[in-house]
């Protein structure tokens, strides 16, 4: 059956507006469309394809596990889930793991756990959750309300209550909201969808101290920053601050859907038998793929390589900016980077992304003013150079059109 972009409009709900090309094949940092045209992928499936496309070890794992066991439900456990959980516990602050299928589900579980912990320990009045404006935590009604972007949560009827929003990197705004009725603060170590904006270390340390003062749990949403993206297995390890609960997804499965929360024994015991669950979460196929991705990423060679690749990306972006003067700042960490357009090009990030696609480069936006790059964590140096050759041409086209 032949399909095209027009088929999307005929049979799919209109909540997405995909580009005209349809990718059909990927290998490493390269993707090919239906017409056989080749692209370099610096979008990484929105920070998901941490090992590029069709990594041979992941392909082999899928083949082997697909001939063993795909799904058994959580009436039984399974070996890949137990191995993956053991490796996550060994490599982080955590004692316990809960598997689900996505970042939204992970954040939903984290918020539910925080509320349940507070009810059990302090009573039902301790229910306030503090999140941040311009944050993003998922698309369930609970997580989209926690996310500080009303455009995503308005229009769906009554929203879950007890959620307040502070200003990111503004400790005083947190201090003004927090009290002994606060059960949790949920924060991204770096805003992803909200503009690739890293947290100030003093801000994060201050939030940790306020949580401790008011017996509130600190939740780190590491769906986008986690699993190697910043050059650490998880971003908290480079900030000197340890959360109470951490959510992870995206790169965790290297493209295969899986999410998780990790936490301590003390907190985790409050998600008792029957309090929360998921049909597909922790299935052996997803966990086998994630375990292989973990074994590849959680090595000094890959994690140190991310820092080297970050330097190469920054160098290329600075060279382009010296020629065209279109960016006011290059920010982010590791291989989650944002090029902030300057006042002369305000609101035009999508034009740069569209022009890049025309030149054979896939990248992203993070709001109206930030071009976002979230490539494979093992992208080759020659692909970085070629990708930015194409981006250079794209920037030139946008500037010439001014």
UniProtKB/TrEMBL annotation:
EC number: 2.6.1.11
Gene Ontology molecular function terms on file: identical protein binding; N2-acetyl-L-ornithine:2-oxoglutarate 5-aminotransferase activity; pyridoxal phosphate binding
Binding site for pyridoxal 5'-phosphate: 103-104, 136, 221-224, 279
Keyword Transferase: yes
Matching SUPFAM superfamilies: PLP-dependent transferases (SSF53383)
Main location as per UniProt: cytoplasm
Binding site for N(2)-acetyl-L-ornithine: 139, 278
CC terms in the record's Gene Ontology section: cytoplasm
Protein origin, superkingdom: Bacteria
Subcellular location(s) per record: Cytoplasm
Cofactor needs: pyridoxal 5'-phosphate
Biological-process GO terms, alphabetical: L-arginine biosynthetic process
Catalytic reaction equation(s): N(2)-acetyl-L-ornithine + 2-oxoglutarate = N-acetyl-L-glutamate 5-semialdehyde + L-glutamate
Pathway: Amino-acid biosynthesis; L-arginine biosynthesis; N(2)-acetyl-L-ornithine from L-glutamate: step 4/4
Residues spanning the signal sequence: none
Residue spans crossing the bilayer: none
Keyword Cytoplasm carried by entry: yes
Keywords: Amino-acid biosynthesis, Aminotransferase, Arginine biosynthesis, Cytoplasm, Pyridoxal phosphate, Transferase
HAMAP family in alphabetical order: ArgD_aminotrans_3 (MF_01107)
Quaternary context: Homodimer.
Protein name as annotated: Acetylornithine aminotransferase
Species: Catenovulum maritimum
Protein encoded by which gene: argD
């Amino acid at each position: 059956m032949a399909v095209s972009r027009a088929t999307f409009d005929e049979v799919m709900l209109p909540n997405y507006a995909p580009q005209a090309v349809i990718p059909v094949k990927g290998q490493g940092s390269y993707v090919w469309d239906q017409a056989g045209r080749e692209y370099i992928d610096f979008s990484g499936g929105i920070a998901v394809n941490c090992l590029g496309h069709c990594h041979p070890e992941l392909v082999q794992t899928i083949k082997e596990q697909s001939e063993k066991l795909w799904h058994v439900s959580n009436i039984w456990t399974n070996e890949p889930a137990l191995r993956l959980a053991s490796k996550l516990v060994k490599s982080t602050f955590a004692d316990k793991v809960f598997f689900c299928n996505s970042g939204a589900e992970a954040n939903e579980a984290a918020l539910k756990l925080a509320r349940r912990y507070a009810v059990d320990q302090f009573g039902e009045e301790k229910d306030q959750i503090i999140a941040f404006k311009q944050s993003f935590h998922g698309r369930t009604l609970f997580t989209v309300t926690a996310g500080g972007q009303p455009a995503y949560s308005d229009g769906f009827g009554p929203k879950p209550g007890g959620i307040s929003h502070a200003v990111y990197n503004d400790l005083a705004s947190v201090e003004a909201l927090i009290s002994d009725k606060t059960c949790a603060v949920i924060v991204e170590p770096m805003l992803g969808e909200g503009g690739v904006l890293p947290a100030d270390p003093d801000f994060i340390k201050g939030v940790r101290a306020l949580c401790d003062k008011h017996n509130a749990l600190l939740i780190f949403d590491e769906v986008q920053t986690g699993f190697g993206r910043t050059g650490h297995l998880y971003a908290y390890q480079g900030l000197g601050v340890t959360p109470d609960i951490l959510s992870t997804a995206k790169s965790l499965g290297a493209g295969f859907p899986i999410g998780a929360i990790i936490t301590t024994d003390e907190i985790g015991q409050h998600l008792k038998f029957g309090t929360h669950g998921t049909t597909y979460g922790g299935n052996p196929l997803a966990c086998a793929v994630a375990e292989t991705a973990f074994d590849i990423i959680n090595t000094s060679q890959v994690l140190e390589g991310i820092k080297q690749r970050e330097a190469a990306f920054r160098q290329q972006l600075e060279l382009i900016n010296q020629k065209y003067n279109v960016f006011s700042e290059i920010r982010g960490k590791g291989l989650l980077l944002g090029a902030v357009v300057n006042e002369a090009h305000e609101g035009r990030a999508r034009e740069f992304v569209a022009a890049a696609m025309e030149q054979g480069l896939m990248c992203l936006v993070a709001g109206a003013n930030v071009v976002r790059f979230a490539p494979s964590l093992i992208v080759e140096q020659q692909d970085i150079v070629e990708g930015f050759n194409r981006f250079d041409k794209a920037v030139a086209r946008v500037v010439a059109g001014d």
